[in-house]
C-alpha cells in the first residue's frame, strides 16, 4: 500500500526525500496505520468500527481529505446508512481545541449503536480535552461493551490520528501547499455526562502533583496492565527495551503489541536519530511545550529533563514549566520552536506558511522543520495516551 501520510499530504519528491532521512519514523508510522486500522485479526474491534472512528476523528478535526479517505474505507465495510450516520456525527462534533475543564459532547446511540456512540464520546474527549479524562470515562466505554484490550486499541487509534493528521497538514504546508482549514467554534456539551466507574476500572487513590515539576513522576493506570507473567513472546518483543517490562504503562499498551511496537520505533527515530536536522535538546523542548499545554504533567517531567540533559537551558525550561507556554524562553530559536509547536497543537490546525517562513528565516533547514513537526505531533499522540489511560503520581520522596 502507498504510504498514507505521503498520499494524503500529496507529498512531492522534496518532501519524500525529507521523510526518507527518518526512514524508521516513516515506515513505522505506516506500520501504526496497519496495526490500528487494518490488523490481520481485528477481534471484537471490527474494521468497520476502526474506519468509523478514524473518519470521525479526522472529520471533527476538519482534516477533510483524510476524513473522506477513511469514509471511503468505511463504505467498503458497511452500509450507506452507517456512513451517513458517521457524517452526521462529524457535523455534530466539529469543534476547536485543545481545551481543559470544558463540557463533554455525547453522541446518540440511536444513530450508530451504543458501542460506536461511546467510541465517539471517547474520541471527542481525546481529541479536544484529554485532560478531562477520568476513570468514569473508562467506565463509560466498558459499559458500552469495550473490553480492556479494545479500549487500548481504540485509544491508540485516536491518539495516532492526532499525530498522523498533524503531520499530513504540516507536510502539505512545508511542500508549498495552502491546505484549507476553516475556523471552528467550540461545540457546547454537558458538564456532567453521567458516566460511572465500573468494577473493572482501576480506580485507586493517587497522590498527584499539584502542578508541573522539574523532577521525576510516577504514573498509575485506570485500565489494568498485563502482569509480567501474562506477557506473551510477541508482547515482550513489542516492548523493544526489556527493562520496560517493569513499567505498568508499557505493560498496558502491550495489550495491542503491534501498535506498541510500531509506535515505539516511530518514537525512537523521531527523537534519537541525530543524523542532521534539529538538535536533541530542541526536539525535547517541542515535546515539553506540547505536554505543558495539554496538561500532561508526566510527559512534561520526563522530557524537560531530557532537554536539559542534551544541553537545554535549565532556567528557560523551568519558566516553561512554572509560568506556562507563553513564558520567555530566552532565545529567538526556542521561541520559534514554541510558537510552531503550539500552532501544531491547535485543532483546527493553525500551523501555516508564516510559521515555515519564520523558521527558515531563523536558520532552520527543512530537515529541522520536519523534526520539529514530528516531535510536536508525536506528543499529541503520547499525551493522549498518558492523560486518558491513567494519571501522574507524585513519588513519596517528593510529598510533604
List the SSEs and their pairings.
Blueprint lengths: L3 H6 L3 H8 L2 H15 L9 H14 L3 H12 L4 H14 L15 H4 L1 H15 L6 H9 L4 H27 L43 E4 L11 H6 L9 H6 L3 H16 L7 H15 L2 H13 L4 H10 L8 H14 L7 H9 L4 H24 E4 L7
Antiparallel strand pairs: 1-2
Helix pairs in contact: 3-10, 3-13, 4-5, 4-6, 4-8, 4-10, 8-9, 8-10, 10-19, 14-15, 14-17, 14-19, 15-16, 17-18, 17-19
Largest sheet features: 2 strands, antiparallel
What is CATH's topology name of the domain at 4-201? AhpD-like
Along the chain, the helix and strand elements come as HHHHHHHHHHEHHHHHHHHHE
At the fourth CATH level, what is the homologous superfamily of the domain at 4-201?
A: AhpD-like
Globular, elongated, flat, extended or rod-shaped: what is the shape?
globular
**Could you say what the CATH architecture of the domain at 4-201 is?**
Up-down Bundle
Q: β content, as a range?
A: under 5%
Low-confidence stretches: none
Q: How helix-rich are the residues, as a percent range?
A: 55-70%
Separate helix tally: 19
Q: Using only CA atoms, what is the Rg?
A: 20 Å
First CA to last CA: what distance? 55 Å
Protein name: Alkyl hydroperoxide reductase AhpD
Keywords: Oxidoreductase, Peroxidase
GO molecular function: peroxiredoxin activity
Domain Carboxymuconolactone decarboxylase-like: 257-331
